Amino acid sequence: MVHLDARFTVGVVGNIISGGLFLSPIPTFIQIWRKKNVEAFDPKPYLATVLNCLLWCYYGLPFINPNSILVVTINGIGLLIELIYLGIFFYYASAKGRKRVATYFVCELVFFGAVVTATMLAIPEHKMKMNRHLRAVVVGIICDFFNVLMYSSPLFIVSDVFKTKSVQYMPFSLSVANFLNGCCWTSYALIGKVDYFILVSNSLGAIAGAIQLIVYAIFYKPTPKNEDPADKATNEVQLATIV
After folding, report:
1. I need a labelling partner for 181 at 20 to 30 A (CA). Which of 6, 12, 87, 199 fits?
2. Helix or strand or coil: residue 232?
3. How many Cβ atoms sit within 10 Å of the Cβ of residue 147?
């Protein structure tokens, strides 16, 4: 009973940190709203996050992976936030930009529908693997694949830091949040019955976050202090996301 309380507490903290990461691009979208123009804004990170949230919401459902309600809550909230972001982009984008977003979004829905259909129809409800429902294993592997891709994406910013000797595109607060998010969900996965699928991607996320912080510490002093933060950072770092 104690480990269940601890797991719930850690999960709530993880929800709060993850929620902060989901909200981090708000300044970018306020700028789009004020300018009535998406300019060079790239919607692909937010489209990728939509698919990620859909998959984790499905993974956390009781008939897939029981006792994972906190996984569903944060990814459900994140899904709503990301759809709002994409709605703003869609409203202010050109016809070409709208078509691109709509195409990606429909493809994601088709893929998600295929995953749901295949796992529900092809896998018997009570078939087990790795001491858990086989449906959870299959969906968990798919979730981990996309989560690892998203957690590794901010490392491209690290390569930019090495090239420019500047941390202007790697905000410290978001780097800390990414690290804490990975640590928190790694802890959540280890409490009680180990959830290997949450563990794998988030432990890698914690490592990626630690690398960002180490690089930030190395290149903070060489960075000219008159440089302004760029929206590019928000657009890319937010990929290091949730559960």
Report:
1. 87
2. helix
3. 26
Backbone angles phi, psi at 194, to 5 degrees: -65, 130
149, 165, 145, 163: which is closest to 240 by C-alpha? 149
pLDDT digits (tens, 9 = 90+) for 152-205: 776 677 777 888 787 776 777 778 888 899 999 999 999 888 899 999 989 988
Q: Which residue has the tokens 């760029």?
A: 230
- Here the tokens at position 12 are 């709530």
- Adjacent-strand bridge partners of 132: 129
- Poorest-pLDDT segment among 95-99, 131-135, 151-155, 191-195: 151-155
Helices (H), 60-195: 69-92, 95-122, 134-152, 155-164, 172-190
Nearest to 101 by CA among 114, 89, 110: 89
Question: Which of 232, 234, 187 has the alpha carbon at shortest distance from 206?
Answer: 187
Of the candidates 170, 172, 155, 166, which has an alpha carbon nearest to the alpha carbon of residue 207? Answer: 155
128 φ/ψ angles, rounded to the nearest 5 degrees = -110, 155
State the Cα–Cα distance between residues 224 and 126, nearest whole angstrom.
59
Q: Which of 218, 189, 193, 220 is nearest to 204 (CA)?
A: 189
Token duo for residue 193:
């019955």
Largest CA distance in the chain: 61
Tokens for 136, please give them: 């959870």
